[in-house]
């Protein structure tokens, strides 16, 4: 389908195709990033590009810990932080460190499709459970599914592909359930929270952290979205300070960062993000894009949840076959992704992290498809 | 032992401890690197930090291909190149792409110890074979060991830990042997050449490339040593243009770069190395350090091969127990690594990629240990 998209751009001119298929923000990194980069390049510290400890620079880890402490009110230190090659690297390191062959890792549809690859890379078995109509994981189903082989549950909020932010109440109940089940089986069950979009939330929402609700927890995240640096592969792992066997776990993470061949997060980016922990791209711009597209799609008759974060919408497909509908949109020069790619057929994903012209340009295609399929 | 080293530095002052234990060059990247970095930072192209194709920027891959073509006389195109997160990332991607569960990968002692981890990451079985007295792999042993489960042979020249550069004649014979065995078993056997130190060779040596001698071959390498960027994790995979099923292999490599969570080689570094393919650090400086240390060690009575490249020496331990001898050196404030860490007990590794003062400072400790153990 990507190739068909490229062909469309070739044929019609890229400016006439609205590509809403990729979570690759057009936003540039914030001014603070450029300022720090300039400062660093003009006065490079000796050895700036050398190996450091596999966990990353102590100064960067301390800066991450300080920021997390400020945000959450929980006291993190640099010993709770391992710098990683993006959230993808971070998640692979965590899974390698905690999984034994055949351990189950639970994920919830719709999910970021690479999760299944990452789990299988390390001998794990992905178990996909359902979410409710609001795209929030079904805890009643989770309760039945958590068995003696469960080693971890992965959540992702704000969510890719839905943009939904899980509420505090959900997190609290999830923590309680995991604690009960861990006690029942006499086995640690990890909660892994993929927070790549944590800073991209709207409407004055307060982000519901997992930290207060479950101790056996690990966050994986990156600066791909909040600083618009997806190509630079810079992120981190944060371990709950009260996690059982925290020291052994962190030592395992550092070891796995090395043996998986990541070795360390890129040095120059570590130097930079040290100073940028409280900085983000302009979130209000994303919110405007969400509001604009949500309003128009709802007016056209699409059934779509207004999500609290990330930069995706996940409307219901007007026809049952989401692949067929995505092809219909494609014929109208709008590129999106079928929901079945995220484990949820019958929906499609729109990535609105594009410039406003592209967004405006997509309306006509969405509108014509809506009319064709008798929406509104 | 590393912790003991850190403790020694604490107690005696770091300037009084000669740390020759790490392949982490003190050399700064060449002036050309800083010039390009400045140029890039002053005129950043739009979208410089965004995701690109998982294979890397076409322009960077084309620059790598052009350089390889110039060096080798074989015509590479960008379709033969995949940018990777260092040679470690590159090797993991290759192994993931070619290994089935239980496939054997042959390595030769002494070897870079992470090879075993990398092979096991992807379900492979590492088979360690012996080298001769000159630290060149024994082809007679390889001939007997290559069985129906063999999927790949990994070589590393210039070698870590010995510094030895394998000769053209050896590569030719190795290619011939692999071709015969592959035909015998009706099965592709890959030659994977880890060339992280390719540019760091001395005495006007001409590097013996594998390309002319075996088609089913893949090179993994990085700019960690030749541009002194080990912390930045920038390297690449090059596939022989005449490799059997080359397109499928390259597609597999790109896929594995993604699913292993590397996603892509760091964007900014890709932008830079595009312009630096013919640039290296000052190799003559390393040669001087090799000459200096080799001469002194030989004079003291150490049995040591004068290697043609990299920045390591691998002398025989004056006592059988290399760990005990490394401890003796440590007591004399010289830090090295026991040979058994590289699969070859009875030797120890010296990394001379340090400043001249550190190198000079180490002589006294080496000399006193030599006298203690009746060398010379």
- The fraction of residues assigned to DSSP E strands of chain A is 5-15%
C-alpha geometry of chain A: globular
* Overall average pLDDT of chain A: 96
CA-CA gap between termini of chain A: 28 Å
Biggest interface between protein chains, with counts per chain?
Answer: A-B, 46 and 45 residues
Q: What would you report as the Rg of chain A, rounded to the nearest angstrom? A: 21 Å
Low-confidence stretches of chain A: none
Output the strand order for the largest sheet of chain A. Answer: 2-8-7-6-5-3-4
Largest pleated sheet of chain A: 7 strands, mixed
DSSP summary, beta strand count of chain A = 12
Count of helical stretches of chain A? 12
Order of helices and strands of chain A: HEHHEHEHEHEHEEEHHHEHEEEH
């Amino acid at each position: 389908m990507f190739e068909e998209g490229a062909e469309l751009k070739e044929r019609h001119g890229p400016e006439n195709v609205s590509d809403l298929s990729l979570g690759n923000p057009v936003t540039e990194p914030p001014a603070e990033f450029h300022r720090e980069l300039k400062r660093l390049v003009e006065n490079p510290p000796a050895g700036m590009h050398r190996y450091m400890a596999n966990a990353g620079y102590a100064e960067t880890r301390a800066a991450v810990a300080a920021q997390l402490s400020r945000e959450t009110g929980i006291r993190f230190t640099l010993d709770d932080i391992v710098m990683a090659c993006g959230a993808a690297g971070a998640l692979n390191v965590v899974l390698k460190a905690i999984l034994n062959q055949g351990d189950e890792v639970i994920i919830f549809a719709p999910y970021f499709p690479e999760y299944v690859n990452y789990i299988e890379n390390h001998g794990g078995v992905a178990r996909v459970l359902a979410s409710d109509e609001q795209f929030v994981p079904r805890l009643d189903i989770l309760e039945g599914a958590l068995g003696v082989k469960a080693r971890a549950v992965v959540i992702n909020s704000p969510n890719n592909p839905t943009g939904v932010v899980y509420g505090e109440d959900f997190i609290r109940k999830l923590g309680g359930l995991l604690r009960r089940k861990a006690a029942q089986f006499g086995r640690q069950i990890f909660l892994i929270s993929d927070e790549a979009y944590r800073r991209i939330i709207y409407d004055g929402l307060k982000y519901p952290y997992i930290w207060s609700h479950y101790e056996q927890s690990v966050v994986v995240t990156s600066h791909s979205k909040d600083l618009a640096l997806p190509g630079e592969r810079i992120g981190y792992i944060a371990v709950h300070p009260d996690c059982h066997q925290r020291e052994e776990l962190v030592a395992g993470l550092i070891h796995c960062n090395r043996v998986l061949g990541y070795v360390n997060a890129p040095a120059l980016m570590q130097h930079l993000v040290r100073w940028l922990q409280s900085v983000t791209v302009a979130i209000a711009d994303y919110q405007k894009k969400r509001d604009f597209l949500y309003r128009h799609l709802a007016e056209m008759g699409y059934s779509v949840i207004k999500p609290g974060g990330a930069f995706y919408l996940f409307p219901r497909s007007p026809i049952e076959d989401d692949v067929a509908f995505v092809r219909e949109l494609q014929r109208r020069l709008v590129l999106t992704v079928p929901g079945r790619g995220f484990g949820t057929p019958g929906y499609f994903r729109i990535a609105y992290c594009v410039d406003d012209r592209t967004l405006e340009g997509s309306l006509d295609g969405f509108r014509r498809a809506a009319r064709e399929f008798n929406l509104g």
